[in-house]
Amino acid sequence: MTMSSKPSLVIFSSATFRRSIRDLRWWWLGLPLVLALSLAAIKWFSVEQFEAETVLAPSEERGGGLADMAGGIAGLAGLAGFNLSSGKINDTQMAVEVLKSRDFLHAFIERHGLMPLLLGDEASAEELQQVWRGYNEFRERFVIEYDRAKGIVTLRMSDADAEAAASWLRLLVKDINIHMRERERARVEQQISYLTNKADEIQQADVRESLYRLLQEQYNRAMLVEVNDDYVFETIDPAVAPHQPKGLHAMTWLLVGALLGGFIMIVVTLLRSYVRSTP
């Protein structure tokens, strides 16, 4: 009866490993050096980018008053366009999505004349008319982080000009507050107009009283819209021009390249030693 042969375990010796190092000695010298110099040169000759940052907090929550009157007037509030089931309107989440939207950013870029700054001096006159190019370039530099648990919003902007990056963030915060305030003003005015007309049509005293209570709530909201400049976001940490460029320093990339080259050579040497030891 023939016994089945088991595969033998191949273990290479330190002598084989040292011999592989001697055979690859020029690679050991060259590859880490080339990688280190290449990564450092890429960082050294690339255009430095500065990243400005601003931290925002949601303004005082609005929209909860209508839910407190939902007992006998839920049907009328539904006709008026209110959603009493939600309790509060999440203006922060809506503002974050508006900040990402094409309509808002297209208008922002055109309003502040950012196309030449985004596309650079080499852009042709035809390219400067294509706002979508500016939008794509802007979105590559613009980062939004939204902490839903705390409601904190962090905006970051990168540009070769540190002062421009900070200035754009300040303009973004100002414009989104104006945009959301105008949006809310139009909605409140529409609801006031509807409730006023409805109150004139209804004859029942109790229903009219409920409508007037809703109308008073909308007048209160209208006053909040008018007096609150920071309608949706209040600035915790304003954007300032950064002093240091983003990313790692060229010397750090030099070290990273050397370590990466050394790691690659260790793997290659081990594989070569294993192949040599295999019968």
Give a short summary of the structure.
The chain is of the alpha+beta class and 279 residues long. It contains twelve helices and four strands; from the N terminus they run ααβαααααααββααβα. It has helices at 14-23, 25-45, 65-68, 70-79, 91-100, 102-111, 115-119, 125-128, 131-141, 162-201, 205-227, 250-277, and strands at residues 50-58, 142-147, 152-159, 233-237.
Notes on the structure:
The radius of gyration is 32 Å and the shape is elongated. With 279 residues, the protein is of the alpha+beta class. Helix 10 (162-201) packs antiparallel against helix 11. It is built from twelve helices and four strands; from the N terminus they run H-H-E-H-H-H-H-H-H-H-E-E-H-H-E-H. Mean pLDDT is 79; it is low at 62-75 and 82-87. 63% of the residues lie in helices and 10% in strands. It folds into two domains: 15-46 and 249-277; 50-237, Bacterial polysaccharide co-polymerase-like (2-Layer Sandwich). A four-stranded antiparallel sheet has the order 2-3-1-4. The chain crosses the membrane at residues 26-45, 65-84, 253-275. This is Polysaccharide chain length determinant N-terminal domain-containing protein. It comes from Pseudidiomarina piscicola.
SSE layout:
Elements: H1 14-23, H2 25-45, E1 50-58, H3 65-68, H4 70-79, H5 91-100, H6 102-111, H7 115-119, H8 125-128, H9 131-141, E2 142-147, E3 152-159, H10 162-201, H11 205-227, E4 233-237, H12 250-277
Antiparallel strand pairs: 1-3, 1-4, 2-3
Helix pairs in contact: 1-12, 2-12, 4-11, 5-10, 6-9, 10-11
Keywords: Membrane, Transmembrane, Transmembrane helix
Transmembrane segments: 26-45, 65-84, 253-275
GO molecular function: protein tyrosine kinase activity
